[in-house]
Write a structure and sequence with these properties.
The structure holds two protein chains of two kinds. The longest helix of chain A is centred in the middle third of the chain and has 37 residues. In chain A, α8 runs parallel beside α20 and α11 packs across α13. In chain A, β1, α24 and β2 form a beta-alpha-beta unit. Chain A contains 26 helices and five strands. Chain A is mainly alpha-helical. In chain B, 50% of the residues are buried. In chain B, strands 6-5-4-7-10-9-11-8 form an eight-stranded mixed β-sheet, with helices on both faces. In chain B, strands 1-2-3 form a three-stranded mixed β-sheet. Chain B is 55% helix and 11% strand. Chain B folds into two domains: 135 residues, GMP Synthetase, Chain A, domain 3 (2-Layer Sandwich); 446 residues, Spore Coat Polysaccharide Biosynthesis Protein SpsA, Chain A. By secondary structure, chain B is α/β, with parallel strands linked by helices. The chains are: A mainly alpha, B alpha/beta. At the A-B interface, α9 and α13 of A face α11 and α23 of B.
Chain lengths: 528, 617
């Protein structure tokens, strides 16, 4: 019996977590919470299956590719739920992988690591958010975990297999979030130190002395350089090659090699990234801590588990530099991007802490002490997760936390959501003979919630350009982003352009429906 | 106790007692004449021996120019003549039988010949190599015919004597006809389907290779035989090990060969080394004759018979092999010194069904020029990863040309090599699977000389690719039977690995041409034929395929720590074009002269094998 439980406990717990996430997602989505990234991907899936035009561009350019493709697998459950199901599945897979690795790698007894990992996945608001928000965070965490796990396994076995697996996972990670390509720079220190492993120098001495010896001998220096370059190439050839190919395909089919990064039709981040300047003035929030060194210190504060990992890794130079790599990554990103860091840039450090523990946990203390330390640190991590959400500058993260916390509102109906209301109105008026002109660059949340795209004229349709020039040719209605709409500059169908069209005397409009951000006009020909 | 020349030499102090004792022991074990054991196991220099005979008034006759009465030779068995190094010539006027012998003082031989011929025997001194040459030439006919036709007689379905069966010809011409008809009737859709099929096949083949490489690289984690196990081997329990060394005009490599054999860590007396020399190859024979140090191999002369191929020579050599295990090496090969012991240990650990072990091949002249670098990249990934991957997935493994180790008895049961197949080793590996047995991989490296000359490389590669095509045709004569024998996994593995390899090489320049036209003419022509989605898939397949091929090449040299070669992987697309050139040459030869053996010249490298590296553990 005990053996049976031991064998299937991880699977059983993963199943419980799956049910837990499904229940939570049902509750919060019913209560009106839909993340814009979730809706963005859902809208692309809808376009793919409901229209017959430009499907290749939709499939071949939507980014993050991994998030889009993993959501496609769950399309039978409906586009809106597909993305959520994908992120739930990936998070549960991550949970299961961590449990499995703890069991196989750390050799700790079940009662020590299961409470810690379960506590985090069941209680940490960040991980719950990753699972049920429908964002690509879950995919990032999963690939991040596998990437670092492969690197640590490589140190143990020195086999090319784990290095090539690391390269494959890094490719996946880059296709979850392009910013991770900057690991190219961040990995530099650890790659140089790992390269020392292959040299015939006195391994008994301290790594710094080994390094000194290798750079001061021309033969060793050449070997060190060759090996470092070789590891670099092995790790980065696949992501580099994949990006090159993806860029090439974008160029040939969308006319721009960086279309997947820069187009609001292809990448949610174009719309979803929050310029740091917009939020930096909000005192007592996370954004104020987003600067060099302070951010890294803050990340450590939010992830006490990582501190514990650092403790376990003392004296292990290669591993230490590997753990430091994501810190270098964010240091580069702080310089390179002027956007507010969303939760994934905090959660990767939590995952990093877990990877580290799976390899070295339990070496210093007795099992009982380890259990105690784990549990206390895990609990602290959960509290710090709550602390993060209280200080977040992202409105959608705030909304998520608020929906989750205010259980009295769980019974609230989705009908109160603005985009849902607009979508419901369009559903009522649109058909093949009464088409509505919608630009999904800004209105993707509305399109995602439409019942059918049959009566909708979208940029994905080849006739869109003609219709925008002369709307009466193809549509009866037009959905316009009002001046208050924060996405108004991403779409041609905004109130400014509407005024320009009207000034040309092309048509007469009648406002038939409006909300705070959207207006729907009926179009009439100008009578001579 | 019967005396021989060695006793005489010992009594005169030119041969030690200790050596004599060992030689007599070997001659007992192998049933050889003592002189044969002394000359073939590294105890005696041929030239010194001939000098000794002449000093004792034994003039060395040139038996090639002696008058022969074939009545006496025909009464002798080639195996016996080969073992005791004699050749009956004729009777003299006194009725005495003149017999050429390597040891004119061999009393035991005289006794046995007297009993056999019932007359007085006079032994005349002759070179052991000439006796061997003439003996095999005159009496080797049966064995050489067996070497050529045995497989065809016992397993006709496995022989490549017939290149295309009728059914295959119907299928090939039917497919070509149908394709042309479809192109004429439905030009565009046919082109789309053909393009899609070929590019998908290309990508799938490469993905399969990547998967194999990853699976293979995982096997780095497991070492079947550890160094300590090899150290702990009790040498007295080691079996006799036959090594076949088929050579043709390799006179320059003979010295190197002896040094390489000497470095093998295996009891000398248990190494049954056969140097297989073609009847018309006087160059190599003379090189052996002129050695100024003891040789540690036995020369077997393969009588002339078409086809003049390496498998025929090996099959012939099998008739004289004594070992429990058998390995094939090329003349220039430098195996890891512990390779044979490792193989024995591994065979002992593996289940009975494993009957062949393939060693990894790599090159000692890897940095000689671009070609040798590319060759090293290819071999590293092929032998270190692909074969291990195939083994793990239980998919038929095509054996490499050398460094494969067999259980001799099973090899004979299987019908040995097909002399009509120019990659007889790959074919044999598949036949092993066909018969419900298995090929394993041994983590030990044999260093070879990489082909460093372009046209020589093309010739060699065209033969290999032609052989793969032959092998594919032979085993696909009855696909249903193949599925039954090796299962669906083995069947698909065989199709993508053996069939796919040749096919992708043939396909590659066509896909490349499309890609280049697409790049240069901005879709103008191509777009008129293919819709966007087909182009999208094709470009993806082609670029992804090339990147992945570059990648798997890099992985393998990384494992071998040939870091300086990693960047050369980027040139892999050009290397593939060379393969394509060879593939078309091979295809042409498959049709026009299927059994023609494109000889590869060895010994072109200016580098020596002394900088050999050991197999990474």
């Amino acid at each position: 019996m005990n053996r049976f439980i031991e064998k299937y406990i991880n699977g059983f717990l993963a199943l419980v977590l799956l049910v837990f996430y499904l229940l939570l997602s049902w509750i919060i989505h019913r209560a009106g919470y839909d993340h814009s990234e979730n809706l963005f991907i859902a809208e692309k899936i809808k376009i793919l299956f409901d229209t017959n035009e430009n499907n290749l561009v939709t499939v071949g350019t939507t980014f993050p590719t991994v998030v889009f493709l993993s959501s496609l697998l769950f399309t039978p459950f409906g586009p809106l739920f597909a993305t959520v199901l994908a992120s739930i599945s990936l998070t549960v897979l991550l949970y299961y992988s961590i449990l499995k690795d703890f069991k196989e790698t750390s050799k700790l007894p079940d009662f020590v690591y299961i409470p810690l990992v379960s506590l985090l996945f069941f209680m940490h608001p960040g991980l719950i958010y990753a699972a049920i928000s429908g964002r690509g965070v879950a995919a990032i965490l999963l690939f991040f975990y596998y990437l670092f796990r492969s690197l640590f396994r490589y140190y143990r076995t020195q086999t090319t297999f784990y290095l090539s697996m690391a390269s494959i996972y890094l490719t996946g990670l880059v296709f979850c979030d392009f910013n991770f390509i900057w690991l190219l720079l961040a990995f530099f220190p650890f790659i140089v130190f790992v390269s020392l492993e292959g040299l015939k120098i006195n391994k008994e001495q301290a790594p710094v002395a080994q390094y000194f010896e290798s750079v001061n001998n021309s033969s060793q220096r050449r070997k060190l350089t060759n090996r470092a370059v070789a590891i670099y190439i092995i790790i980065f050839l696949l992501p580099g090659g994949a990006l090159l190919l993806f860029g090439y395909l974008n160029d040939s089919h969308a006319g721009n090699p960086t279309y997947y990064l820069t187009s609001q039709y292809a990448n949610w981040h174009v719309l979803g990234n929050i310029p740091l300047g917009d939020v930096i003035s909000q005192k007592g929030t996370n954004a104020t801590l987003q600067s060099q060194i302070v951010f890294q210190a803050y990340v450590l504060l939010l992830n006490p588990l990582l501190l514990l990992t650092f403790y376990y890794f003392k004296g292990k130079l290669y591993e230490f530099f590997t753990i430091v790599a994501p810190f270098i990554l964010v240091a580069i990103l702080i310089i390179n991007t002027q956007f507010y860091f969303l939760i994934e840039y905090y959660l990767i450090f939590l995952i990093l802490g877990i990877v580290g523990l799976t390899f070295y946990a339990g070496r210093q203390f007795t099992k009982k002490v380890t259990w105690f330390i784990f549990f206390i640190v895990g609990l602290l991590n959960v509290f710090m997760g709550i602390y993060y959400f209280k200080r977040t500058n992202d409105e959608e993260e705030k909304k998520f936390f608020s929906t989750l916390r205010h259980y009295k509102n769980w019974g609230r109906k989705k009908e109160t959501d603005e985009d849902f209301k607009v979508a419901r109105y369009i559903n009522e008026i649109a058909d093949v003979n009464n088409k509505v002109l919608v630009d999904d660059a800004a209105a993707f949340k509305i399109v995602a919630q439409l019942k059918s795209l049959e009566g909708i004229e979208l940029p994905a349709n080849k006739s869109f350009g003609t219709v925008v020039e002369n709307p009466l040719v193809g549509v009866k209605y037009m959905c316009v982003a009002k001046l208050e709409n924060k996405y108004k500059n991403f779409t041609v169908l905004n109130s400014y352009n509407l005024a320009m069209m009207q000034a040309k005397g092309q048509f007469i409009t009648e406002l038939v429906y409006q909300t705070e951000n959207w207006a729907i006009y009926k179009l009439y020909p100008v009578e001579e | 106790m019967a005396q021989c020349v060695l006793h005489k030499m010992t009594s005169e102090g030119s041969f030690s007692d200790e050596k004599l004792e060992t030689v007599l022991h070997i001659s007992d074990v192998y049933s050889y004449a003592p002189i044969k054991a002394a000359l073939n196991f590294g105890f005696l220099v041929r030239r010194d021996y001939l000098d000794f005979l002449e000093k004792h008034n034994q003039s060395i006759i040139d038996i090639r120019n002696e008058e022969l009465d074939e009545v006496y030779i025909n009464q002798c068995d080639i195996s016996h003549m080969n073992s005791f190094l004699y050749l009956p010539l004729r009777k003299n006027s006194s009725g005495e039988l003149l017999v050429a012998a390597a040891d004119p003082f061999d009393e035991k031989l005289i006794t046995s010949l007297v009993i056999k011929f019932k007359c007085k025997i006079i032994l005349l001194a002759a070179s052991d190599l000439d006796i061997t040459w003439l003996g095999h030439k005159l009496r080797g006919e049966f064995f050489v015919k067996e070497a050529v036709f045995s497989l065809m007689k016992t397993h006709p379905e496995s022989s490549a004597l017939i290149t295309f069966t009728d059914a295959q010809l119907y299928f090939i011409f039917g497919s070509i006809g149908l394709t042309f008809a479809l192109i004429i009737l439905f030009f565009k859709p046919t082109f789309i389907v053909l393009n899609l099929l070929s590019s998908l096949f290309f990508l799938f083949s490469i993905l399969f290779k990547l998967y194999l490489a990853l699976t293979g690289s995982k096997s780095e984690l497991h070492s079947v035989v550890s160094k300590s196990e090899i150290k702990g081997v009790n040498e007295s329990t080691l079996p006799v090990y036959t090594i076949l060394l088929p050579v043709y005009k390799e006179d320059k490599l003979i010295r190197k060969l002896i040094w390489n054999l000497r470095s093998l860590d295996y009891p000398k007396e248990k190494l049954d080394v056969k140097l297989l020399i073609e009847e018309d190859d006087d160059k190599t024979l003379n090189a052996v004759r002129n050695l100024d140090f003891p040789a540690n191999f036995e020369v077997i002369v393969v009588p002339f018979h078409m086809p003049k191929t390496k498998p025929k020579a090996c099959n012939y050599g099998l008739h004289f092999s004594r070992g429990e295990y058998l390995a094939i090496y090329d003349a220039e090969d430098v195996p890891d010194s512990d390779q044979l012991k490792k193989v024995v240990c591994q065979f002992r650990k593996l289940p009975e069904e494993f009957v062949v072990l393939q060693g990894a091949l790599n090159y000692f002249n890897k940095n000689e020029n671009l070609l040798t670098r590319m060759f090293t990249l290819e071999y590293s990934y092929w032998f270190d990863y692909m074969l291990s991957g195939l083994e793990t997935l239980d998919v038929p493994i095509p054996l490499g040309g050398t460094s494969n180790h067999f259980k001799l008895a099973t090899l004979l049961e299987l019908g040995a090599w097909d002399p009509f197949n120019v990659t007889e080793d790959a074919d044999l590996g598949l036949r092993v699977f066909d018969n419900g047995m298995k090929v394993g991989v041994v983590n030990s490296t044999t260093l070879e000389e990489a082909n460093n000359e372009f046209f020589n490389w093309i010739r060699q590669r065209s033969r290999w690719i032609k052989g793969y095509m032959q092998t594919y045709l032979v085993h696909m004569r009855d696909p249903a039977r193949l599925v039954r024998q090796v299962g669906w996994r083995g069947f698909f593995g065989f199709n993508f690995f053996i069939g796919g390899t040749s096919f992708t090489f043939l396909l590659y320049p066509i896909l490349l041409l499309f890609f280049v036209i697409y790049m240069i003419f901005k879709f103008a022509f191509i777009r008129s034929i293919f819709p966007d989605w087909v182009l999208y898939i094709s470009i993806f397949n082609f670029v992804a395929g090339n990147v992945l091929m570059i990648y798997v090449n890099m992985l393998a040299v990384f494992k071998r720590r040939y870091y300086e070669l990693i960047l050369f992987s980027i040139l892999n697309p050009i290397y593939w074009l060379m393969h394509s050139r060879a593939a078309y040459m091979g295809l042409w030869q498959l049709i026009t002269k299927p059994f023609y053996w494109e000889k590869t010249n060895h010994g072109l490298s200016k580098l020596s094998s002394t900088s050999a590296v050991v197999t990474p553990e």
